[in-house]
Amino acid sequence: MNNQNLRPIPKEKVGRGGPRPGSGRKPLAATVLKERLGDYADDAIKAFKFCSELMNDPTAEKNVRLAAAREVMDRLWGKSTQQVEHSGEISGRIVVVRA
Predict the structure, then answer these.
(1) In this structure, is residue 17 part of a structural domain?
(2) How many domains does the chain have?
(3) What is the pTM of this model?
(4) Cβ 96 vs Cβ 84: under 8 Å
């Protein structure tokens, strides 16, 4: 038997088989939302459905439907970015204060 072709047996198998952290199917966004909101998940979903129904209600006033549509859009895609223009010199850090 030729010992030159034999490899040493590793003491521990590293990275082969078994579960790995981060592997597998990622959870759906709704599942992640429910986990983060905890006890408030059902209320948040009801509020979203309420805004959606109000937005599509032809008997509601237009300004109410528009406000509901804005809420739905803000929740789905986030609020749009606001551009800020600065004139003058920058003499240090810029601090943004939100009202």
Answers:
(1) no
(2) 1
(3) 0.42
(4) yes
